[in-house]
Structure formats: structure tokens, C-alpha cells
Inverse folding.
């Protein structure tokens, strides 16, 4: 990778509350901890990290569209929008590079509505239940998929 390659990470609603929101489910790591992990891993691979957290569906859609012209891959945690947002799913489908959807908690052991991941239909990979490390695993997967597409 070159230092001009970018990777985008987009987090959906309430993920700005990491560390304080339901720590029994989402852990005690904060958004700042997450960004630090992501920046470190991106730097290890010679990438520039683009990060956004938004509680607004339209901002997330716009960010995915914008990322398509600057990033080699997309890591997204649509959070609650993952269960019903056709707009986010369509934006993910239009992203030209590999897309990994992430969920911090093990959604399949939670209430039934959280087991339905509409947006995951547009992802090349889904990483679920590994806490904040889910994002690191997703980044590794994105890089592997990108390299496979380039060769």
C-alpha cells in the first residue's frame, strides 16, 4: 500500500457513545480508543484513515458516496440502520471497492430485530461479535479483498 491509499470507516447512530452506552454489550472501549486502534492499523499498512460517526442516515449515505471516490475500501457499522435502511444498503452496493460491515456485539444472540441485517446484503464481508477488534479484522479483510482485485 502507499500512503496515498485511504480506507473509510463509517459508524452509525449512538456509536459516539461507546464506553458509556451499555458497556455490558458494547464493552468499555471509547470512540477515541477505536479511532486509535484504526489509525494504528491503517498506519501499519501505509493507509490514511477517513473516519466518520453520524446519527443521521442521510449523512451516512452521503459519506459512503463521497468515500467511493477517495478510498480503496469501506468499513461500516450502520448500527440500528442495519436493520432497515435501504438507502444505506443501496449506497454500500454502489461503493466501488470492497465493503465490510461490522457489529461490535454478537447480534445473533440478541433480540430478534437485531438478527436481521438488511445492509449486510451489500457487504463483501461481515464481522460480528469481536468487540472493537471487529474493525481491525474488517480492515485486514478489506486489504486482502483489495489486493485480490488488483492482482
Amino acid at each position: 500500500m502507499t500512503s496515498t491509499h485511504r480506507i473509510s470507516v463509517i459508524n452509525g447512530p449512538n456509536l459516539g457513545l461507546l464506553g458509556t452506552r451499555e458497556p455490558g454489550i458494547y464493552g468499555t472501549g471509547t470512540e477515541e480508543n477505536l479511532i486509535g486502534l484504526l489509525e494504528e492499523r491503517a498506519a501499519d499498512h501505509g493507509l490514511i484513515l477517513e473516519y466518520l460517526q453520524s446519527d443521521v442516515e442521510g449523512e451516512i449515505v452521503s459519506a459512503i458516496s463521497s468515500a467511493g471516490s477517495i478510498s480503496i475500501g469501506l468499513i461500516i457499522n450502520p448500527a440500528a440502520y442495519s436493520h432497515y435502511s435501504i438507502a444505506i444498503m443501496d449506497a454500500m452496493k454502489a461503493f466501488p471497492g470492497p465493503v465490510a460491515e461490522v457489529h461490535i456485539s454478537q447480534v445473533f444472540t440478541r433480540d430478534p430485530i437485531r438478527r436481521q441485517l438488511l445492509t449486510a446484503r451489500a457487504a463483501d464481508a461481515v464481522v460480528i461479535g469481536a468487540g472493537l477488534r471487529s474493525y481491525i479484522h474488517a480492515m485486514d479483510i478489506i486489504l486482502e479483498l483489495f489486493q485480490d482485485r488488483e492482482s
About this structure: The helical segments are 23-26, 31-44, 57-67, 86-94, 133-150.
